[in-house]
Amino acid sequence: MHEEFLHYLWVNKKLPFTQLQTHLNESLEINHFGQYLQNAGPDIFNAQISINQQKWAGNIEIHIKSSDWYAHNHENDSKYDNVILHVVWENDMPVFRKDNSEIPTLELKKYVALSDIHSYKALTTSKTWINCENEIASTDTFVWNNWLETLFINRLERKSALIDERLEATNYDWEAVFFEMLAKNFGLNTNGDSFLQLAQSIPYIIIRKESFEIEKLEALFFGKLNMLEEDLYDDYYLKLKSNWEFLKIKYHIQEEFGLEPQFFKLRPDNFPTIRLSQLVHLISTKQNLFSQIILANSYEELKQLLKSETSLYWKKHYTFSKCSKEKTKRLTSQFIDLLIVNTIIPIKFSFSKSQGQLNIEELIHLLETIPSEKNTIVSKFLAFDVKATNAFQSQSLLELKNEFCNKNKCLKCAVALQLLKN
């Protein structure tokens, strides 16, 4: 038995609440079930009950065993002083308040239907990938669509938390924070952290000043990431190195250690050299990019704004001094889609929220015009007849898998709740 299941029973009123008795055989009526806030302190706040027709108002704590009260040291925590009912699966010992009065206890195992227990165990028994893999495709369309929207909003809220944190750190410099998020996502999973550290380690006013000269900006980024430390005889490399030495002195920039990006297991087009050059080209050729991004409302507008390629040197190179076949290395449509999904949408959400004008419907509509992401999670859902046809659906599925399925939060999932109800 899990405590989460007992919370589910209480919140969803899965008990014969007109026939209840306390452990002392007193009649118990639930007049108001209270609020399940999941904060520190009792599980249920502001409930109202009647015991032998005496009305009580206060909080309710839920445990597997009544002895858990002492195991969790609630007797020493003032937040539990106002508990009017102890709801447990098994009443294995009496529990007392600080004034030595006994807390009324409701033992649930006397009242729970076996069918509810069997349904819960069947649902939460681990399967090959997710617990509801055999039933998820049968979810009611209305429930499913509402749940996808909730998942998407949850995902936006989590992503915007980092943006909010960085806004506070930069005195609400939206352009600087936008650049940080852009840099992080140019680095993808492998180099995202080092690219983010790069963006955070250089005051954005410096980047803005040098953004009119691609070579200066490349020197600044490559130098800061410790990528100009070798003795190479390559004209462009030496030029960047010279510029880096000049910029360090000009702006009193400290050298960093531990920021060097990785090449291991990356496809050449994802090498940090290529992605950095494309990032430099983007912010050098698209002045006031943040303002344009905020004003853009369509997928086509955003794609045009995010088009970028490398500088001339990197058309014939993937790494310094090693020449390769000439190729114009533009951002692919798939990469631009990733930038829109992982950078632009969260930034737009955070900005609209800061203006007091939440634009959820607008963002959902925008994502519905973008092709679905292609990854192992989306492919695996498809194997269970759950299809993502656009980026809104694929983003929601990623949230479902990572934040609910992987963490066994079935009883907080609309799919599982409907399955249990059925």
From TrEMBL:
Cite the InterPro entries for this sequence: DUF2851
Q: Name one Pfam family in it.
A: DUF2851
Task: Give the protein's recorded name.
Answer: DUF2851 family protein
